[in-house]
Amino acid sequence: MINDKIKKRVLELSEQERAELAHLLIDSLHSEKESGSEKDWSEELKRRIDKYERGESSTNSWKNVNKTARSLLDR
């Protein structure tokens, strides 16, 4: 449980300072495993871009993706 004194001090911070603190705290919750996940996603993204640039995959317009998604949700 957070100490009341700490809560009071935090709430006295400016909005900008509280936002910075919130980001710091949220970032501190990410484990090393999650950081590895970010690396894995970056590698996957690079792999997909390379595949697209070699002409081995294609894309869909947002209009078509949105239409397909909506039709799936309406089922």
Question: How much of the sequence is in beta strands?
Answer: under 5%
Residues in helix, %? over 70%
Low-confidence stretches: none
The structural class is mainly alpha
Q: Can you give the mean pLDDT?
A: 89
**Total individual domains:** 2
Distance between the termini: 46 Å
**Cα Rg:** 22 Å
Number of helices: 4
Could you spell the SSE succession in H and E letters? HHHH
Major sheet: none
Overall 3D shape: elongated
Beta strand count: 0
What does this structure look like?
- The protein has 75 residues and is mainly alpha-helical.
- The chain folds into two domains: 1-30; 38-75, no CATH class.
- The chain is built from four helices and no strands.
- The protein has helices at residues 4-11, 15-28, 32-53, 62-73.
- The chain is elongated.
- The mean pLDDT is 89.
Keywords:
single chain; mainly alpha; 2 domains; elongated
Describe, in short, the structure shown.
By secondary structure, the chain is mostly helical. It has helices spanning 4-11, 15-28, 32-53, 62-73. The protein contains four helices and no strands.
Can you lay out the helices and strands and say which pair or pack?
Blueprint lengths: L3 H8 L3 H14 L3 H22 L8 H12 L2
